[in-house]
Amino acid sequence: MRLGIDIGGTKTDAVAIDDAGGLSQRIRLATGFGSIAVVETAVAAVARIGELTGLPASGFQSIGIGIPGMVDSASGHVAHAVNLGLERLELGGELAGRLGVGVRIENDVKAAAVGAYHLMGLDGTMAYLNLGTGLAAGIVVDGRLWRGADGIAGEIGHIPVDPNGVICACGQRGCLETVASGSGVARQWRTDDPLPVRSLFAAAADGDPEARAIKARLAAGIASAVRVLVLTVDVDSVVIGGGLSHLGDRLLCDVHEVLDEWAQASPFLASLSLPERVRLIPEGSPAAAIGAALVGES
């Protein structure tokens, strides 16, 4: 049995998978805020899965955790996980002390990339494009993460695409994330709906011209991310996940439409068959938790 935990901004997802990679147990619980609470959440998740499987922490083949922020997977150090109230936390060391076993810590998007690759039965190269509050990608080559020299591989949300755009949280201007993300939508579309993108799509369907313009920019931004991933890494497939993926075919069709338009104008892009490479992760898949379990022994 391998144990994987995905620590999100509000919810934590934990799974146990068997030797064949099949899902054995799954639980969800609320995520605490701040360093102490995050550690307690992880410990509670291990305990709950342990009760269901009958295994102590030391009984698992490996334990892995996916968490937002800048993660040093070698040391288990986490930094700048703002939504969790973490500036700096030696999460790997803290949990090893509490659980008595080593724990592998990985960035949540990278963990989700491994999980998606496994869940969807893919081979070759894949990019997992996470469309959530921000935008980032995880790249998997023959089943293994490609992190790059400093673990930054896939941070395409901070590629500037508009020199006249707004200032991004990273300090650059006009980054891809400022238009192709949940936060990008929320900035442009003011609403009382707790899910601004839901309100945006509803208003666009009703014919609101501003909503339609923002929705078009969102689709173009996502299509740009797909193009970047294919042109830089030449991945076989781009799997869209994250909060915005819940829009399903409504989002995918918009992205395909943009890619098709580009292909009509460019024989070069047409030769790359970009629309055929893009797919959605299956709804409700615990990709990040399963990926965390799989990277736990890497």
UniProtKB/TrEMBL annotation:
* InterPro entries linked to this entry: ATPase_NBD, ROK
Q: Which domain of life is it from?
A: Bacteria
One Pfam family name is ROK
Annotated Gene3D superfamilies: 3.30.420.40
What name has this protein been given in UniProt?
NagC family transcriptional regulator
> What protein family does this chain belong to?
Belongs to the ROK (NagC/XylR) family.
